[in-house]
Amino acid sequence: MTLKKTDLPANCHLISFDILDSTNEEAKKLASGGAKSGTVVWAREQVLGRGRYGRTWDSPYGNLYLSIIQRPTCFPSDATQLGFVTGVALAEALLSICNIEIALKWPNDIMANGKKASGILLESSINPNKSLEWLVIGVGLNIEKFPSDIENSTSLHKEGAEVTLENVLITFLHYFFNYVEKWFNNGFDPIRERWLSLSLKKGTDIKVRLPEDVIFGTFMGIDNRGSLLIEKNSEINKIDVGDIFPMVITN
Ligand code: BTN
After folding, report:
1. Nearest CA residue ID for atom 16, ligand 1
2. pLDDT digits (tens, 9 = 90+) for 30-44
C-alpha cells in the first residue's frame, strides 16, 4: 500500500525514510533547524534505535518507528502530559483495528495481551527563557517482530492481530492529532481519565524499579503531570522516573 497525502491528518507533515540511525535523532535535528510542529519522521528500520534510560530499542524492518515534533505553548513541566496523550491515542488506534487486549502501563508502555508491544520516548529542548522550544515524541511499536531475549515483550502479529504497518501508521496519526487537539482545548483531566481506564486498577499492588531502588506499594493513579502515585505505609509518594511491575494483574 502506498501512502497518499490525503490519507494523513491535515496538520501532519510526514517525512519517510527507509533506514535511519534513530527517528528521534533525525526529528531533533529537524526541530533544532526550525521544522514545524506536526512534522513526523518515519523510518522503516533503525540501526541505533533508543529507548528510555539510553537502552537499545530493537528496530528491524516490519515494525513502526516514528518521531513527532510538537511545539506546544505550555510549561515545560506540562509537556510530559503529551506522552500520556500519545499513549492513549496509540491504544485507541490499536483498539479500533485489532481484536486483542490493549492496555497502558506507566509511564508510556502499550501492552498487548499483557506483554510490552510499544514504548514512547520524549525528548525536549528548553529556550534560555525557560519556555519549551520543542518536544520530540518517539514511538516504537512491534508489529511483525519483537526481541525474543527481552522478557515480557511481544508484537501485534505474535498476539494474532492481523494489521499492516501502513494501516497502523495512518490510524495512529489520525488519533494522535485528534487527541492533541482535545488536550489543547480541554486540558489533561479527560486524557488522564481515559489513560487510567486503560491502565491498572487503582488499588493494585505494584513493584516500582527506580534508578537506584525498588519500592513496593499500591497503585493510586497518576497526578496532573503524569507522576505515578503509589501508596506505601499510608502515605502517597510521587514518582517521576521508574518502571512499574504489577504484582497481580487485575484488569
Ligand atoms: C521505551 O524505552 O520504552 C521507549 C522506546 C522508544 C523507541 C522509539 S522507536 C522511534 C523513536 N526513535 C528512537 O530511537 N526511539 C524511539
Report:
1. 138
2. 999 999 999 999 999
The answer to whether the CB of 65 is under 6 A from ligand 1 is: yes
This prediction's pTM: 0.95
What is the Å distance from ligand 1's center to 140 Cα?
Answer: 5
Structural fold of domain 205-246:
SH3 type barrels. (2.30.30)
Q: Tens digit of pLDDT for each residue in 70-110?
A: 999 998 989 999 999 999 999 999 999 999 999 999 999 99
Domain 5-197: CATH superfamily is Bira Bifunctional Protein; Domain 2 (3.30.930.10)
SS (H, E, C) the chain: CCCCHHHCCCCCEEEEEEEECCHHHHHHHHHHCCCCCCEEEEEEEECCCECHHHCECCCCCCCEEEEEEECCCCCHHHCCHHHHHHHHHHHHHHHHHCCCCEEEECCCEEEECCEEEEEEEEEEEECCCCCEEEEEEEEEECCCCCCCCCCCECCCCCCCCCCCHHHHHHHHHHHHHHHHHHHHHHCCHHHHHHHHHCCCCCCCEEEEECCCCEEEEEEEEECCCCCEEEEECCEEEEECCCEEEECCCCC
